[in-house]
UniProtKB/TrEMBL annotation:
<dbReference type="InterPro" id="IPR024717">
    <property type="entry name" value="NapC/NirT/NrfH"/>
</dbReference>
<dbReference type="InterPro" id="IPR038266">
    <property type="entry name" value="NapC/NirT_cytc_sf"/>
</dbReference>
<keyword id="KW-0408">Iron</keyword>
<feature type="transmembrane region" description="Helical">
    <location>
        <begin position="12"/>
        <end position="33"/>
    </location>
</feature>
<dbReference type="Pfam" id="PF03264">
    <property type="entry name" value="Cytochrom_NNT"/>
</dbReference>
<keyword id="KW-1003">Cell membrane</keyword>
<keyword id="KW-0349">Heme</keyword>
<dbReference type="InterPro" id="IPR051174">
    <property type="entry name" value="Cytochrome_c-type_ET"/>
</dbReference>
<comment type="similarity">
    <text>Belongs to the NapC/NirT/NrfH family.</text>
</comment>
<keyword id="KW-0479">Metal-binding</keyword>
<dbReference type="InterPro" id="IPR005126">
    <property type="entry name" value="NapC/NirT_cyt_c_N"/>
</dbReference>
<keyword id="KW-0249">Electron transport</keyword>
<keyword id="KW-0812">Transmembrane</keyword>
<keyword id="KW-1133">Transmembrane helix</keyword>
<protein>
    <recommendedName>
        <fullName>Cytochrome c-type protein</fullName>
    </recommendedName>
</protein>
<feature type="domain" description="NapC/NirT cytochrome c N-terminal">
    <location>
        <begin position="10"/>
        <end position="176"/>
    </location>
</feature>
<keyword id="KW-0813">Transport</keyword>
Length: 184
């Protein structure tokens, strides 16, 4: 009988330990996700300096309304599973920074077209999900936009276009397309 009580207590202690450890893990995991979404983290790699300077020249950084979109607002989904997938994929950028593939502004520029193209394709696949957090067609007051923007946004909505189809290079400068080598 005493042995059964001892096993029961150990089981309860084990369950309590697993529960507390789970809460601790969840807290640390959430804290690390939050920390890696901070602007300071994003621009801590010196190859991001150019991107940060371009961003500071954009309306996403400074504008009449005072609303600022940060790196994570545009590059990290809000929903949990897409956020985790994005973080896992972004780990390769950290890897390439550490391994020296993109650790200088020159090397970064050499790979910039390919990296930007991957981001654009991801945005097309997600229907510019992160853009639409702030820029949803149904929330636009087209009458307040210039004539060109008003007609283009109306057409884009009718065609079911996504933001990135027209707005590449809005925050970051357009990268140079790699030159095709002429074998002739």
């Amino acid at each position: 009988m005493a042995d059964a009580k001892g096993k029961s207590r150990r089981l309860i202690l084990l369950i309590v330990f697993i529960f507390v450890a789970g809460i601790g893990f969840a807290g640390l995991f959430n804290a690390s996700l939050s920390a890696t979404n901070e602007m300071e983290f994003c621009v801590s790699c010196h190859t991001m300096e150019t991107n940060y300077l371009e961003y500071q020249d954009s309306l996403h950084f400074k504008n009449p309304s005072g609303v600022q979109a940060t790196c994570a607002d545009c590059h990290v989904p809000k929903a949990f599973l897409p956020k985790i997938a994005t973080k896992v994929i972004a780990a390769k950028d950290v890897y390439h920074e550490i391994m020296g593939t993109i650790d200088t502004p020159e090397k970064f520029e050499e790979h910039r077209w390919a990296m930007a193209s991957r981001v654009w394709k991801k945005m097309e696949r997600s229907d510019s999900r992160e853009c639409r957090t702030c820029h949803e067609f149904k929330n636009m007051d087209l009458s307040e936009q210039g004539r060109s923007a008003r007609s283009r946004h109306a057409r884009a909505e009718d065609k079911g276009q996504t933001c990135i189809e027209c707005h590449q290079g809005v925050v970051h400068e357009m990268p140079r397309e790699p030159r095709v080598k002429d074998d002739g």
